[in-house]
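Run log, item B.
One chain of 250 residues. Sequence copied directly from the ordering sheet:
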Amino acid sequence: MLKAEHLIKEFEKNEKHNRKTIFKAVDDVSLALAPGEIVGVLGPNGAGKTTLLRMLGKLMRPTSGQVLLLENDMPIADEREIKSRIGYLSNNTKLYGRLSVRELLTIIGNVYDMKESEIETRIEQISSVLDMNQFIDNRIEKLSTGQTQRASISRCLIHSPAYYIFDEPTLGLDIISSNAIIEFMKQEKANRKAILYSTHYMEEAEQLCDRIVLLDCGRIVAQGSLDELRDMTGGSNLREIFRVLMNGEV
């Protein structure tokens, strides 16, 4: 299980007349991600979603609080071991344009000390799952937006992590690319992998998520299954639930 305990992330904010104030991008957030579930993180722009995901992915240190990866209820202490079990997708990842997707995946597989035969097998599996067979040997700089996003996700999969953290993986994609990524997440859930991802697409979250975390101003305003959030707010769908919670009508 991947757990966040009382995470706080503070940044200095420059004001007028050279005054500096402290801004809490994430303010006392605790949550857990278990094998075989998909958890969606939703919230308005500036709610702290990306900062939260970066701390959970071990790419950013919290000001206070901690991120734990538990195995048999015991925390894993080795940071390298923790990172090897997490696949993190940023919403602005830059790839090496002159490489083909296959070349990129081979390099990343070598970084994780995978055997050559294991890398080749894994690339074929990933290419099939993400429907990349038609462009896996094309240079990344020649790919469409949707193909590039699938290539970006593929680099998170090569080492078969147990936990995925995705920052808006379907943002701005066409239907075909979005569907490929959604189907991938469903398959990985069936394989007992855990997925935490942020999204602005309410209908997508309703379709995919076992639990939903609603974030505003760096704090969790509500979390639970869709049915639990319906009972809490009286909203019939996630858009209504979101409106009620953001307007403080609960």
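Observations after the first pass:
- The mean pLDDT is 89.
- DSSP finds nine helices and ten strands in the chain.
Flagged for discussion on Thursday.
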